[in-house]
Amino acid sequence: MTTLISVLLVLSIVVPFGIYFKSEKSKKSGKTALLSNIFSFFSILVVSTVCVFASASAAPADASNTAGLAYIAAALVTGMATIGAGIAVASASSAALGAISEDPKVMGKALIFVALAEGIALYGLLVSFTILSKF
């Protein structure tokens, strides 16, 4: 079932653009291809979501709440650590580029600060792996 849904989603993207490129290119045919692409993609997406949730509700509840909360915690740890690392790397790397442009001798020190900022994401991954290894 999932393979069929995947194939339908890919076809809903490829077929309208294939029709557009094979036909005479005009503004109207471009809009028609885009609208048919959007309609077919989202309709297949809604149907597949309904099918997945219908089969998931029929499945027996084997998983405990603790495992679900652990997965949510691991996702939050990874996401927040990555966002924090992105913010830190953005400010550290721009400052490092400014310092390197003034004095090329400070490149090693600047790279250390950028690497320290990137370490935040690695620590987040380590914590999420630790959480996931318990379940």
Tell me what you see in this structure.
The protein contains 4 helices and no strands. By secondary structure, the protein is mainly alpha-helical. The protein folds into 2 domains: 57 residues; 69 residues, F1F0 ATP synthase subunit C (F1FO ATP Synthase), CATH 1.20.20. It is flat, with a radius of gyration of 24 Å. The mean pLDDT is 83. Its main location: membrane. It is found in: Membrane. Keywords: Membrane, Transmembrane, Transmembrane helix.
Features:
about 140 residues, mainly alpha, F1FO ATP Synthase, 2 domains, flat
Average of the residue pLDDT scores? 83
Level of helix content? over 70%
Q: How big is the Rg?
A: 24 Å
- Measured distance between first and last alpha carbons: 28 Å
CATH class of the largest domain: Mainly Alpha
- The strand count comes to 0
Shape: flat
Instruction: Tell me about the largest β-sheet.
Output: none
Give the count of helical stretches: 4
Q: Which ranges are low-confidence, i.e. pLDDT below 50, for 5 or more consecutive residues? A: none
Family: Belongs to the ATPase C chain family.
Transmembrane segments: 6-22, 34-56, 68-98, 110-132
Membrane topology: Multi-pass membrane protein
Main location: membrane
